[in-house]
Amino acid sequence: MALSALAPAYSPFFGCMGAASAIIFSSLGAAYGTAKSGVGISAMAIMKPDLIMKSIIPVVMAGILAIYGLVVAALIIGKIGAAPGYTLFDSFCHFSAGLSVGICGIAAGFAIGIVGDAGVRATAQQPRLFVGMILILIFGEVLGLYGFIVGVMLHLKVQS
Predict the structure, then answer these.
(1) Nearest C-alpha neighbor of 58 from the set 154, 121, 137
(2) What is the pTM of this model?
(3) From the centroid of its chain, how far is CA 129?
(4) CA–CA dist 36, 22 (Å, integer)
(5) Which residue in 68, 67, 43 sits closest to 55, CA to CA?
């Protein structure tokens, strides 16, 4: 099959960039959320060491963001092929899918990190704030889930 304007030789590049964007950006958000929440947990543990396991929830939620990126990157990598059979439409869908989950992962990681840091410190002083912190963390996590859903839907648009 010959190369055409719809499937140029460089079309797999955009698919690869989508896979890389998915894992890089979502891992960046997960790392920030983990680090920022970890600082709050460490500060809180000085006052109330018995609350450490209860306060680890933001770190777990931040780690889930990287899983979203890994899943989308794996889906994209499974469909990337040689240029004649891999069109620009396919590659742009994969690129968009990777950016969708990756950038939403950064946003969610920032939200989880900031809320997790402040939330665990506040929960150490007033335990009744725990449920409110969890609800806010869920609303932060759902930003990453939205990007994951859009990324999977874009991946499903690929015909090959």
Answers:
(1) 137
(2) 0.90
(3) 26
(4) 21
(5) 43
pLDDT digit string (tens) for the chain, length 160 residues? 566 777 788 889 999 999 999 999 999 999 999 999 999 999 999 988 898 998 999 999 999 999 999 999 999 999 998 877 888 899 999 999 999 999 999 999 999 999 999 999 999 999 999 999 999 999 999 999 999 999 999 999 887 5
What single DSSP character describes residue 53? T
Count Cβ atoms below 10 Å from residue 31 Cβ, excluding itself.
16
CA 60 – CA 8 distance, rounded (Å): 42
Instruction: Check if the beta carbon of residue 116 is closer than 8 Å to that of residue 58.
Output: yes
| CA distance linking residue 90 with residue 24, whole number of Å | 21
Amino acid at 83: A
Give the angle 103-89-106 at the CA atoms, nearest 5°: 5
What would the two tokens of residue 42 be?
A: 């460490």
